[in-house]
Amino acid sequence: MASLDSSCRCLYSSTDEGRLAPIPKPAVFACFRRWKPPACFLFNHQQPDTAREPSSCKRWPRDLLLDLSPCSRWPRDKADKLIQEVFQLQRWSMWANKVTKQVSQQDFDYGCPSNQEWKVIENVDSDDRMILSLVRDCHNVTQCNIIHAFLIKQGFILDAILGSSLVDAYAKCGNLEYACMVFLRLTQQDVVTWTALIMGHALHGLFEEALQLFDSMQQMSIEPNEVTYLCLIKACSVAGALAEGKHIHVHLASKGLDSNSLIGNSLCDMYMKCGSVEEGTVVFRKLPSHDVVAWNILIGGHAQFGDGYEALKLFQQFQDSNVEPNETTFVSVLQACANIGAIGDGEHAHKMILEGGFTSNIYVGNSLVHMYICCRMLEEASLIFWALPNRDLITWNTLISGLSQHQLATKVFELYNQMQESELAPNDVTFTAILQACSSKESLENGMQAHSDILKAGYESNMKVSRSLISMYVKCGSVEDVKAIVCTLPQGNTFVWNSVLTCVLQHGNIQESLSFFWEMRQEGIELMEATCISLFEACSSSKDLWFLMEIHAYAVECGLEGRINITNAMIGSYSKIAGSRDLFHLFNRLPCRDADSWIVILQACMEERRVVGRLDLLDQMMQEIVGPDLSTFLSIMGVCSNAGSLIYGMQTHMYIVKFGFDTDGIIGNSLIHMYMQCGACYHSVMVFDNLKVQDIVSWNALLTGFVNCELFEEALQIFNHMQRHGIESDQVTYVSVFQACANLTAIDFGHLVHTSIVKCGTDLGLKASNSLIDMYAKCNRSLDAASIFLTLEERDVASWNVLISAAAKEGHPEQAFHLFDWMQADNFEPNDVTCASVLHSCSMTADLKRGMQVHIMAVKKGYDLDTFVGISLIDMYGKCNCLQDAKHIFGCLPEKIPIAWNAMIAGYIQNSQLQEATGLFQMMQSEGVVATYTTFLCMLQVFSGLESINDARNLHALIIGSGLLDSKISSLLINMYGRCWHLETAGMVFNSSHDQDVVLWNALIASRFHSGQAREALQLFKQMLLGPVVPDQVMFILGLKVCSSLAALEQGKEIYSLIIQSGLDLELDIGNCLIDMYASCGSLEDARVLFHRLPEKDLVTWSTMISGYAKHNKYSSASSCFEDMQKECLALDDTAYLCMLSACNNAGLVDDGVCYFKKMRDESGLEPTRQHHNVMVDLLGRNGYIEEAKDLLDTLPYVTDIVAWTSLLGACEHQRNLSLAQQCFQHMNDKDAAAYVHMSNLYTHLGMQVNSEEVERGRKSNSSWKMPGRASIEVNGCVHEFAVGDNSHPNSKDIYAKLKSLRMQTVFSRVPRLKQIQGLSPAQEINDVSCGHCEKLAVVFGLLSLPEGTTIRIAKNLRVCQDCHHFMKTVSRKECREIIIIDTKYVHHFKDGVCGCSGPG
């Protein structure tokens, strides 16, 4: 084919030079070079004059036609075709008249005349008007060719009007080659002709050519008109050519045409569609007047390309301008509401649509349905759908797609069936939505039915439908069907296989992906670039190095290694799997690499913390990359920020300065962010200070950085500086401020900021509103948080999560459950954060049923693989005593971070499986997982329970090595050493602590107290009061417990006075401990008075009072208190029932005890624990029901402990039941001395002295241990402690002399009993060691030290024996003293020789 210029000369060569257009210069019409001249126009114009006479040239000889072109000879078949078209010319005229008539009758048929019509049509003479009408009525290229040939034959001169019409006709029919040739043939190319050609190129997407034509038009000194500019603006709008559009805008502004309404609207539309919403708004503001079209463009642009909130604000301004909205206005407004979920504004727009009568418009109706679906109001969308008078395919597809997105498969198929009944044929969008709804095995049948309909409709070859089919079968687990589809799809094998593999990869099925990959290799199918990248990404997530290497090898075979995108994806995968050494080796061998490749290497180096020795990487990168741009430095800083690499960050900063980017505002803000992420706040401030323009983005970067670095006070100071500089805050600012206030619990500052926002009428936006709710919630202002939540016009899942999480953390699980149910009822889909928060609430309440429901939901949504959801599940199952489920979840976690290990260890602790917790901790260390602060807290509890001093010391060394030793850890160390009976080491930890705060004092005093050194604990408490440490609530509670154990009533009262001074006397926990202290010290009346004075009472308060009555053997008072507690509508717990069973046991009321035991299970739904069964066994055994007690022990669902068997053995001793006693003795621990004592006494009572001696020998050989008895008494504010046979007291001589005198008075009255029971004479009894029992020594010391008439109060750590009980009775009668002894079961109140208990003696 000849060149364009030569073709043009050949086409237009003629003797009549005056009728020929000049040939344009190639430089001007460079855009024409790619067009090929149409073959039918390559003939010579040297025709006979008769050619211009219609009547004299009815038929053209074929030879004449063949000789028309001197430049080329046509083949005979093409000549015949042209002759046939010419002969049909006159018939075309008649057909055009017929078309015109049909148009007037509004019954127009665009089809060409039939063959029969062609035969009827005769020759018709035509004038210019007829020809112009025919040209404008052309609707395909064939018709244009016929008209064009007729014009050439008849010799019509193509003037500007006719020529531009023919150019326009060819352009609209899609044949731009012919349009260009006609344009070149014109005698004169005026603005109309140029505009027609430009419009044709613009209509068919050739925007660059259209703009080149515009430049050529200007070079030819042709002045464009408004239509030309409109065509160009439209071209820029569709092509997204913002730079060219701005150039045209400048040109228009120079001529003053930008104020024209039509051009201004087009410019505004162009800017909007090119993404430059701000410039479009500026054009709009400059227009002299704003009609509805201008407003629609502005609102629609913001709705589609900008900010939906701004679009709604503009709609409000539009309403104030008194311009009437039309259908397009409401379509744009509804689109904005749909994008941001503004249901309130959407409902308001809906109301206006109803008032304006626009509901019949199909576009408005479709937008309404779409808006309600996007706002998750599916029922309203369905109502709107069925209320529409007209429904087209888009309407049906909108509702079907919305239901499909919410996985409502049943409703989707119901609607699909109704659509088919309406005789409306579904399209590819319909089938795609239906297939998306089939996402589980249960919906496979429906998916297969949809597949059948797709085949019937002929959409199986549609690309989008094919991919949806493959995705559907993959989701439903039907891989064989996927393979069958591969064989039936009409696309090429390469594309189909790659599509299937990509789809399987998207659903995370690595094994199936591997299977498909191997089949592809066997079939010899090449990988496509996108599929190869997806495979590399899958390898990164699965950490499968072997699979990665196979893909790499096959990519090389397919010739993909040289592509830069493949290269970057490949090294990105290797960086996450292989070591840095292998990665660098691969990187050096790459055939091509760019800045992104270097950034991947830098990221790998930073993540492995291999900075030393690799500092030259950035230097090498800068040498290899010629002229790094802004995006390169932004990417490098992003990597430095994520890795927290300050060294690389500072090196990058140096290169930024070197290349002159340091003055750029975006770079400056990114530097601030990078330094903040690296913890270098000082460097961030320096960069900020050096910025030329400190805009809102810079301030926000600094403010957000301080918040992320947990420098919350400094962040608020930055905010104050920002306000003083007059910088207007935005939503990002308020998010950071509220976060800082939340972490500081600075509710006053936060409330002040909130108040100023309300006064200014600032719209916070959804994210800032969520932060505000979170701030109030964390500051314990839950009512304010809920109030703001309820006032939100729109909410997202984060809004719900903030409230649910706050309720869970504040200990209100029921409120969290209520919010969770409300959220789902409001059509919000819970996400992983929601599941974690609700599971935390389930953990708090041990609500296994609800926790399992959330677990099922998480599995369906795929959240169970999320690390934090998995950790919450472990915590929930651990606290619900389902350790097997917890271990299963732990084993299935894709990534076991330290928090997961901590949760599992805590679960073992929760279920008292301390050895398993120790084993898991050792496994954690062997796998190289770094122990965290929480890990050490858990393990300190473990080793405290195991009392393993060696493990304790090893853990102590690990803690010191980790650098995590603080006050809380030290307090737990003290507690652990105290439990291991290493009080000296505990004291050393305390003394070595720099900050001996109240927490450490609490731990030290508690370790002494729990080790049985209550007197030393009380002394430490007094010592603490002498120092600067202010006791807290925990310290006061601990002090009261110490006084309770020592019966130090006066000391307890002094602590009470300190509590009143501290303002803690109204605290409920303090009140409960005071009641227990008074009751334990024998002052039951004071306990009762305090109980009635408490402003509020909880279950612990009532249970403490009942326990006090039980210790004092006041059953009637305990029963009355229990009934009063029930009247308060409190949910009874196991502790309340345990106290009542103890009251029945102390009073010996078997029937009442059995009644409460049954009521606990039947009425309250509580399962009795081991402690409840132990009390019942003691109650039955002590009252003669030993067989029933034995039956109860035998029927327990768990292994009984030694307490129950010891109680039953004691009852057997009392009842002289040898056979049952021997059975009980078999269950006892060899180290328990009590069992040997009971058994030896029983043999003695039965006269079986030999057996008794044998049992005694067994006790000694097994080294059985019995806790030494200790008794304490408070005298003149000082606690004195006595042990059995104690001679360490300074007044020991006086004490033993007085004791011997008392014994002489009491022993002879018991001679018959002594002989019967023990076989001892009175002289032996006087010299027996029981003479020095600790409580006797304490009582004697009280008689010697306290004034006459003063009550003697004694506390003992064991039960009072029969001899001492009788001794106390006698002493109280003979000495006229009131004696109160508190042992482990009773408060013995001796007065006038009588004890208020029903105990021994």
Automatic annotation (TrEMBL):
Highest taxon above the source species: Eukaryota
Cross-referenced Gene3D superfamilies: Tetratricopeptide repeat domain
Residues of the signal peptide: none
PPR repeats: 190-224, 291-325, 392-426, 493-527, 695-729, 796-830, 897-931, 997-1031, 1098-1132
InterPro entries associated with the record: DYW_dom, E2_motif, PPR_At4g14850-like_plant, PPR_rpt, TPR-like_helical_dom_sf
Full protein name: DYW domain-containing protein
Domain annotation DYW: ranges: 1324-1398
Keywords: Repeat
